[in-house]
Amino acid sequence: MSRGFTHMPGMFGRLTPYKGNISHRPGCYSCYMEGSPGKRKRPAVAGEKGCTAPPPQPADSIFLSEWLAGNRPPNQLPISAVCNSHCIFCSNRLNPFPVATGLFRDMADVKHQLSLMPAHRDPIRLSDSLPGRIAEGEAFLHPQFFEILSLIRHKFVGNTLCFTTNASMLDEPFLKKLAAYRPI
Question: What is the pLDDT averaged over residues 85-105?
Answer without folding.
Answer: 84
